[in-house]
């Protein structure tokens, strides 16, 4: 297969009708494009949105989430120039019966911004943060003040210019900081054997770096929404650190530390049976790489035997075998869909050829194996940003589920062995029936938890609703194993399969929590629809008192429900 893939990479011949590839790439390009913004007709705007703040840009806009499963056309949207204008917009929305939904890059899967049933007639107003809420400034030698509309790439670039950085970060650089904090976004990192946490850094989520934040909240004294700044040691801040869209944060101050040079080594020569072997099996195990380097990620293509393993390690000087990289996104074969993969995806989607899932998985593995060598990307080194960011909007867009399994560091390999064994067995059982519910990847990352002491602020509180919130009942849980399964949208039997996986995780690992931005709460027909998961399992995974505290805080800071939607109403009851 590798030789075949190499030939296709060079020749561009995919072996299927050219129109299927063109159609697929055009669809991907449409999703990658910025939504069309149509300036509002003044008379129409005055009729539909009377007394809207004249100083705020107002327009009609489409909404598209990352994979295009949640879409809406013709929504009213605006782009406040600063936080004061945000307050004006929110007060207008409250007075006129509209709900405000903050929008960054729309790089998510779950219905936290809008639901799929949202129409242009819905009383919804999108508030775009990316055009103007993008300020960046050092607040001190170890803290940065940032607007929530700034992208992670812009933030990391700014930090790098001042000799600062993060231990880990999500792979997509287009995420806005506000969106990342709303869902406790994370990278992949734990301490290697003998490694101590560096001042200003955390092995938890980005939310765990917040020192203070400014949010739009209800003020009973004035009878209006106002800006208020909360310090990390305030009780209300604990809810706002991961608010799921039940609040609107305009600015944050983050603790940061000295930047590090990272080496990232990729390999595709370790079989899954060895990488995810039972504890004590010996060999090249995922837990072994964590002990050695602390930072690892596995991307396992469906129906293949050899995952793409990335291992990052701190390396102050360039190893002789590594290529120095001075910018991010160093896997062009992954960022831009190759002809062979595009052709196969085109056939699967256009012709309903779901049985090609094993061929697609093999092709993707082959592309990765050849691409790593052809682009000299198998061993790269440079400032942290340049190896941590590797997903562009042009990458293959798939739907994804997501969970964090809290466990002890010593049990990571046990969790991986149990999960991958179940996944492999069920995928084979489905295939035996001629069903192919997964045609993407399994992605595995491992992080630490959100210990508030990492912020180095006395009295700091842990984020209430971060999946990485430590458990008071299980102090031995110090690690989270993040598990995602990706497949093309519309794949038959996907929801049924993913429901089985979800129920297995909840049944097998007490520390299972959902990944807010991904798919969860599966029935056999749809995600985010299982009422027991929404109403009992998810709240229970945090504890009744913690969930109740968060819900109560949101209701008190936003008693009119301006920040929310029907899905969040159901989730918080």
Rg over C-alpha atoms, rounded to the nearest angstrom = 23 Å
Q: How large a portion of the residues is in β-strands, by DSSP E?
A: 15-25%
Shape: globular
Overall mean pLDDT: 93
| Span of the ends, CA to CA | 52 Å
Secondary structure: number of strands: 22
The structure class reads: alpha+beta
User: Biggest β-sheet: count, sense, barrel?
Assistant: 10 strands, mixed
Indicate the percent of residues in helices.
25-40%
Q: Helical region count?
A: 18
Q: Residue ranges: pLDDT <50 for 5 or more in a row?
A: 1-22, 28-34
How would you describe what is shown here?
It contains 18 helices and 22 strands. It has helices at 2-11, 18-32, 42-48, 83-95, 152-161, 177-182, 235-240, 272-275, 286-293, 332-335, 339-351, 357-374, 384-388, 412-432, 494-508, 531-542, 544-557, 566-572; strands spanning 37-39, 57-64, 71-79, 99-103, 124-128, 136-140, 143-147, 164-165, 210-219, 224-231, 249-255, 257-258, 261-267, 295-301, 308-314, 323-324, 379-383, 399-400, 403-407, 441-448, 479-487, 512-514. The longest helix has 21 residues, at 412-432. The radius of gyration is 23 Å and the shape is globular. The N and C termini lie far apart (52 Å).
């Amino acid at each position: 297969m590798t030789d075949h893939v190499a030939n296709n990479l060079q020749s561009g011949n995919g072996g299927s009708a050219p129109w299927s590839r063109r159609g697929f790439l055009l669809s991907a390009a449409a999703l990658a494009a910025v939504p069309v913004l149509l300036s509002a007709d003044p008379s129409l705007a005055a009729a539909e949105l009377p007394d809207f703040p004249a100083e705020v840009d107002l327009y009609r806009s489409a909404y598209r989430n990352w994979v295009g499963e949640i879409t809406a056309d013709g929504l009213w949207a605006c782009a406040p120039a600063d936080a004061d204008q945000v307050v004006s917009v929110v007060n207008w929305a409250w007075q006129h019966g509209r709900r405000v939904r903050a929008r960054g890059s729309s790089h998510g899967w779950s219905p936290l911004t809008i639901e799929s049933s949202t129409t242009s007639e819905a009383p919804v107003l999108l508030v775009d943060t990316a055009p103007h809420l993008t300020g960046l400034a050092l607040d001190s030698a170890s803290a940065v003040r940032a607007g929530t509309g700034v992208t992670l790439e812009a933030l990391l670039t700014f930090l790098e210019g001042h000799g600062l950085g993060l231990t880990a970060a999500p792979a997509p650089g287009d995420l806005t900081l506000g969106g990342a904090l709303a869902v406790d976004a994370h990278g992949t990192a734990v301490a290697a054997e003998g490694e101590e946490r560096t001042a200003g850094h955390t092995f938890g989520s980005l939310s765990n770096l917040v020192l203070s934040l400014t949010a739009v909240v209800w003020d009973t004294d004035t009878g209006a929404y106002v800006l208020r700044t909360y310090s990390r040691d305030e009780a209300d801040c604990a809810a706002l650190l991961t608010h799921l869209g039940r609040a609107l944060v305009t600015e944050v101050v983050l603790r940061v530390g000295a930047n590090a040079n990272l080496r990232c080594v990729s390999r595709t020569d370790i079989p899954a049976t060895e990488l995810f072997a039972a504890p004590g099996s010996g060999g090249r195990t995922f837990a072994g790489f964590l002990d050695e380097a602390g930072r690892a990620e596995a991307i396992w293509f469906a129906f293949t035997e050899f995952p793409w393993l990335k291992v990052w390690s701190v390396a102050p000087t360039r190893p002789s075998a590594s290529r120095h990289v001075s910018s991010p996104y160093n896997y062009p074969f992954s960022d831009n869909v190759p002809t062979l993969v595009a052709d196969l995806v085109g056939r699967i989607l256009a012709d309903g050829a779901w049985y090609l899932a094993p061929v697609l998985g093999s092709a993707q593995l082959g592309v990765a194996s050849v691409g790593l060598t052809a682009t000299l990307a198998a061993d790269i080194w440079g400032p942290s940003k340049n190896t941590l960011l590797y997903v562009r909007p042009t990458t293959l867009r798939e739907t994804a589920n997501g969970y964090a399994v809290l466990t002890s560091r010593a049990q990571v390999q046990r969790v991986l062995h149990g999960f991958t064994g179940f996944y492999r067995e069920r995928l084979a059982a489905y295939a035996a029936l001629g069903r192919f519910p997964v045609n993407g990847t399994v992605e595995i990352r491992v992080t630490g938890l959100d210990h508030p002491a990492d912020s180095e602020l006395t009295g700091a509180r842990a984020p209430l609703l971060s999946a990485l919130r430590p458990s008071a009942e299980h102090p031995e849980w110090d690690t989270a194993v993040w598990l995602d399964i990706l497949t093309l949208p519309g794949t038959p039997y996907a929801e049924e399969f993913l429901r089985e996986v979800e129920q297995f995780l909840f049944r097998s690992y007490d520390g299972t929590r959902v990944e807010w931005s991904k798919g969860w709460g599966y029935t056999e027909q749809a995600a985010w629809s299982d009422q027991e998961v929404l109403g009992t399992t998810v709240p229970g995974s945090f504890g009744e008192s913690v969930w109740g505290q968060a819900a109560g805080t949101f209701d008190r800071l936003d008693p009119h429900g301006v920040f929310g939607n029907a899905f969040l109403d159901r989730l918080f009851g």
